[in-house]
Amino acid sequence: MALGRVGRSFMAPILAVNLVVHLIVVGLAGWSLDKYIDGEQNHPHLGGNTSTNFMLIFALSAGAFGACSVIIGMMHLQAWQHESHAAAASLAIISWAMIALAFG
Prior knowledge:
Layout: H1 2-37, H2 52-79, H3 82-103
Helix pairs in contact: 1-2, 2-3
């Protein structure tokens, strides 16, 4: 019993850090995609090949989906029921798959 409570107490800080990481990914991917669309990819630090555009789109969508997944995880933390666990777990697995796809 005590082990379950310890895991639950660590869930909130881990979800908060995960949300911040996803928001950083969304911000950086959005900024870089904006620079890439504006034609400013000739700089050495913004260079890339033809797949850069697709990687940025996948990273942007995976970051947004991951942030939504974290919010659902926070809702599950508050409710802590079997019904909310299934939704949070399935969304987390799909989010993880999208992030793996974005990282190539």
